[in-house]
Amino acid sequence: ERREAARTARAPVVLPDGRVVRVEANVASAAEAAAAREGGADGIGLLRTELLWLGRSDLPDEDEQVALLRAVLAELPGRPVVVRTLDVGGDKDLPALHLDPARSGFLGERGLRHGLAHPELLRTQLRAVARAAYAHDGEVGVMAPMVTFADEVQAFLAALDEAVASLGGADHRRPDRVGVMVEVPAAALAVDEVAAGLDFVSVGTNDLVQYLVAAERTLPAVAHLHRPDATAVWRVLEQVVRGATAAGATVAVCGNLAADPQSARRLVALGVGELSVPPPAVAAVKAALR
Ligand code: PEP
Ligand code: MG
């Protein structure tokens, strides 16, 4: 019976109209990637690399980054994995970077903002992703967090092109899909501009909701304002799906909203084709969609 349940969890979700919805997992380690596979995830929709690096006092060099990424990819043979570039600042600290708290808060130099301010760090990570992708027999995506404007997307794409070109004859593969997170209201409301030239966008509802309702995601005192059914949030989500689709990008949702079965159904009804949730939530989300 357990084997039957596992087989059901692994099967893809096919809607009555034939559309396949991918239910993937958010992970931060090879152990979580294994749990995601066991739990029936169709892939990894969000690999939080800053957490992959956690627990060390120094920064991993390029070779170490490649090894860390390969260990995660090896858990999901044949399946798609989206690697997110470093998302530091806000609620995510990385002691080795010695971030200045006055500068890297929730409204500060977070995510891609930090990456563009430290091009060597971003370049090394993009090289590591391209090298790790070489050995994976599934699709590899790369995406940037905390994007606000289209010119940042262009800078990210240029950094990726440059990093890949710099690898020359070394074993590597340019990521098959390139995207960004949509988690800043300005990016959500102008997603047609932000998504231009991208393969996908992935909506980070944890941050998007925090910024829309002006309530820090880490503060229990205002947690009640993070309502999964907030009218404003759904109006923005609807616009994101419409705008990104018109721009030719597919839409994923990787925030915790996607793990709420009711919301997952609503997202899919809007046209979202890819949900990424914590590994233990994969089976329940698939069941809700079925
Ligand atoms: C989000 O913001 O919704 C998200 C998925 O990213 P993180 O929780 O890592 O900020
Ligand atoms: Mg986020």
From TrEMBL:
The identity of this protein, by name, is Phosphocarrier protein HPr
Judging by the UniProt lineage, the source's domain of life is Bacteria
The function of this protein is: Component of the dihydroxyacetone kinase complex, which is responsible for the phosphoenolpyruvate (PEP)-dependent phosphorylation of dihydroxyacetone. DhaM serves as the phosphoryl donor. Is phosphorylated by phosphoenolpyruvate in an EI- and HPr-dependent reaction, and a phosphorelay system on histidine residues finally leads to phosphoryl transfer to DhaL and dihydroxyacetone.
Instruction: Give the multimer and partner information.
Output: Homodimer. The dihydroxyacetone kinase complex is composed of a homodimer of DhaM, a homodimer of DhaK and the subunit DhaL.
Family, according to the entry, reads as follows: Belongs to the PEP-utilizing enzyme family.
Source organism lineage? Bacteria, Bacillati, Actinomycetota, Actinomycetes, Motilibacterales
